[in-house]
Amino acid sequence: MVATPIVAGNWKMNKTPTEACSFIQESVNLLLDIDRVKVIFLPPFTGLFDMHVEHPFSLGAQNCHWEDQGAFTGEISVGMLKDCGVSYVIVGHSERRHVFSETNDWINRKVKAIIAADLIPILCIGETFEQRKSGQTNQVLEEQLQDGLEMINSLEKLVVAYEPVWAIGTGITASVEQVSGALSLVRDILSIQFSDSNIDNSPIIYGGSVTPTNAEELISVPGVDGFLVGGASLNIESFTSIIKIVDKIILNK
Ligand code: 13P
């Protein structure tokens, strides 16, 4: 493994700022000896304000708008996030794509705004159950990557998260073969699209029902550089266990 492994906790619409603060403090205290894994906390926007974390911990946001400011009720700009100490921003999460109808064009605008602000996008891609069943997985992943990264010149600041929609919040995890197949496809697509960049330095992580029980098997899959965790990141014990498992396994990867 070349990229530093990442374990990111996407809390979605959970936890008040007070809860976020004590969760992060407690987790940090339980992870004092972790330094080989980047840990990213992604609370709701309100949990980002006045939250201070240090290496190997970072803050991430779950969404952003591509404009700097203006009449966009309910939106937030990358500048506002940066001022809160955010380093990463999730873009194209399946809930944004499927519940809020975000298009690849919007996702691409957001990726560009995030990179322009010197923050790191976590670009989520993934197929639905129907798309997988009808053999469209490769085409969907290719489209999401090519359109989402249009006009981006370098992979230097990018995390790609492969999150099959059917594995999110369902308790169904993608098999080792499915994860390794999708991730090698992602690498192939990126190496064609970014022939000048070193793909090995770009972390590609997996998300979809990751728990302490399946983390060891999944992080052992060649090409998996970490996890984007939903449900299991809401509980201190399960989130910190996943991080400790990744920290242990990467030594031998
Ligand atoms: P779960 O881990 O709850 O399946 O959610 C995954 C996810 O959507 C992370 O972004």
Structure description:
The chain is about 35% helix and about 15% strand. The mean pLDDT is about 95. Helix 4 (about 105-115) crosses helix 6 (about 135-150) and helix 6 (about 135-150) packs across helix 7 (about 175-195). The protein has about 250 residues and is α/β, with parallel strands linked by helices. The protein binds 1,3-dihydroxyacetonephosphate.
What is the element layout, followed by pairings?
Layout: E1 6-10, H1 17-30, E2 38-42, E3 57-61, H2 78-83, E4 86-91, H3 94-98, H4 104-116, E5 120-125, H5 129-133, H6 137-148, E6 159-162, H7 176-193, E7 204-207, H8 215-219, E8 226-229, H9 236-250
Parallel strand pairs: 1-2, 1-8, 2-3, 3-4, 4-5, 5-6, 6-7, 7-8
Helix pairs in contact: 1-9, 4-6, 6-7
Question: Structural class, from secondary structure content?
Answer: alpha/beta
Distance between the termini: 6 Å
Oligomer: single chain
The gyration radius over C-alpha positions equals 17 Å
User: How many separate helices?
Assistant: 9
The largest β sheet comes out as: 8 strands, parallel, barrel
H/E element string?
EHEEHEHHEHHEHEHEH
Shape: globular
| Total beta strand runs | 8
Task: Summarize model confidence as the mean pLDDT.
Answer: 95
The largest sheet has its strands arranged as 1-2-3-4-5-6-7-8
**Helical amount:** 25-40%
Poorly predicted regions are: none
Q: Which ligands occur here?
A: 1,3-dihydroxyacetonephosphate
**Beta fraction of the residues?**
15-25%
